[in-house]
Amino acid sequence: MLADQIVGLQWGDEGKGKIVDLMAKDYDMVCRFAGGHNAGHTVVVEGVKYALHLIPSGVLNPNAINVIGNGVVLSPDNLIDKEMSQFENIEKRLFISDKAHLVLDYHALIDQAKEKLKGKNAIGTTGKGIGPAYADKISRVGHRVGELLDPGKLAGKIMEYFEQNRAIFDVYGIDTPDREALTKQLQGYKAKLEGMITNTTNLVQDALGENKRVLLEGAQGTMLDIDHGTYPYVTSSTTISAGACSGLGINPKQIGKVTGIAKAYCTRVGNGPFPSEDFGKEGDRLREKGHEFGTTTGRPRRCGWFDAVAAKEAVRVNGCDQLALMKLDVLDGFEQVKVCVAYEVDGKRVDYIPYDLEDAKPVYESFAGWEKVEGISEYEQLPQNAKNYISELEKLVGTKVGIISTSPDRKDTIVL
Ligand code: IMP
């Protein structure tokens, strides 16, 4: 059996949560392969609101097994206090890779201190410690979830780490933890997580071998990918489809259908290039109508028009078989809907993402708007102009639109 995959094609917040939630009922296993609790989405099921950051969305399907793969960086605090507490008997349905790296208190403190020192050049991170945790992993000084099984030993290693890096911690104004308190904290994590820590590569491989249906849930978006995004204004992980291979221990031949998620317009949180950003009234209107405020940080999102150049590249890099076009209803009532179809760089028109997107100016094409698609769940009922917009996007990005979302509600979804 091949695993299906969901990936974001823009700068995150594309609405992956709704689609994974919609699809999760058909899968036996849902796996996260990258990122950490910088990701976030809220799902409402039967009037109850759930905030998910690290736990895969399959948790809302009582029959699905959920896997946090080795490519994820895991904050035990966030997982235990903010997420697991929302669910009963989660211990039986959630498994965590022993090879996933830990995000500990000091990672968040380093993240915040570094951002402060950068001043106006700050990346605008979520401040959760994601970058420093991945940096430790790559520098081979990180700590893995498997180490939680021996809290005393792990506390000793962390104290050593502080000793070796005291000069750096001084610059950031971070104190060395108290060893006893640290050991106690780690013992607490062990008590809560021990039963879930395992070799998840075997778990996923066995599931695929037994013809179970597996869904791979991406976090963030392609334009935030450490290699393919707008570096350095990116997150620190491989957010594209290939990240699932290293982040779970599956091979490229085991990935089946890839669904790329994109909003019908664009948003971005944090700093960095965003050529089709609209600084005027239309951008404000997208923000208000689309409730574009971060789930993790509450920050207002920057808003603008659909960037077909970035989306086309994202479709190719991820190998998308189809596009899920989200929040089409947010464009309801606009007289004209703009799409960025190329960039102007140094006076020349380019239809690919240049090395530096900072000075790229958008080249727009305008399409006639429509009155209302909100709440429509049949393709035939869409206004003709909305259908035209969808088919123009298909041509521009090079793949078909297979899913259209017309409101946050699960039922307001067109599946083609
Ligand atoms: P970090 O992942 O906290 O290091 O933040 C790096 C950049 O990625 C910042 O611009 C964040 O705003 C952005 N980012 C990280 N996670 C998400 C997400 O889930 N949605 C949208 N943007 C994100």
Structure description:
With 416 residues, the chain is of the alpha/beta class. The chain has two domains: 290 residues, Adenylosuccinate Synthetase, Chain A, domain 3 (Alpha-Beta Complex), CATH 3.90.170.10; 95 residues, Adenylosuccinate Synthetase, subunit A, domain 2 (Orthogonal Bundle). The protein is 30% helix and 21% strand. It has twelve helices and 20 strands. The strands form five sheets. A ten-stranded mixed β-sheet has the order 9-7-5-2-10-1-11-15-19-20, sandwiched between helices. Strands 14, 16, 17 and 18 form a four-stranded mixed β-sheet that branches. A two-stranded antiparallel sheet has the order 3-4. Strand 19 and strand 20 form a beta hairpin. Helix 3 packs across helix 4. The chain is globular. The model has no long low-confidence stretch (mean pLDDT 96).
Question: Runs with pLDDT <50, length 5+?
Answer: none
Helix share, percent: 25-40%
The CATH topology of the largest domain is given as: Adenylosuccinate Synthetase, Chain A, domain 3
CATH architecture of the largest domain: Alpha-Beta Complex
Question: Averaging pLDDT over every residue, what do you get?
Answer: 96
Helix-and-strand structural type? alpha/beta
Number of helical stretches of at least 4 residues: 12
- Using the alpha-carbon principal axes, give the shape: globular
Sheet with most strands: strand arrangement: 9-7-5-2-10-1-11-15-19-20
